[in-house]
Amino acid sequence: MAIIVGDKYLIDSDKYNWILKEKRVSNPDHHLSKSSETKEHFVDIGYFGKIEHLINSLLNRDLKSYEINSLDDLKQTLKQMENKLKIEINKCS
Questions:
Q1: Cα–Cα nearest to 42, from 11, 64, 63
Q2: Rounded to two decimals, what is the model's pTM?
Q3: Domain spans of the chain?
Q4: Tens digits of pLDDT across the chain (93 residues)
Q5: How far, in Å, CA of 29 to CA of 22, rounded?
Q6: Pseudo-torsion of CA 81, 82, 84, 87, nearest 10°?
Q7: C-alpha 92: how far from its chain's center?
C-alpha cells in the first residue's frame, strides 16, 4: 500500500509499521553521483506503530514550514492543513 500525500510525502506500510517517506531529487552534480540524470525518489523519514502518530508527525513537519505569528495564524493554518488532508483522503475513496 502506498498513499501519496500532496507532492512531497508518501505513506507506506509494512507488517509492523506505518512508514512516512519524503520525496527527494538527486543532484547529478554531486561528487558521489554515479548518474548524470536528475531522479526523484522517496526516503524513509519515520516509522510509526499507529497511523495517528504518523499523521501527527506529518502535520508537525508541514506546520513548521509556515510563518505563524499569532494564535489566529495557527488556527487558520491548521484549518488549511485539515482541508488539504481531507482532499487527499477523498481522492483515495
A1: 11
A2: 0.72
A3: 2-92
A4: 788 887 889 999 999 999 999 999 877 776 666 667 778 889 999 999 999 899 889 888 888 888 889 999 889 988 888 887 777 767 765
A5: 21
A6: 180
A7: 16
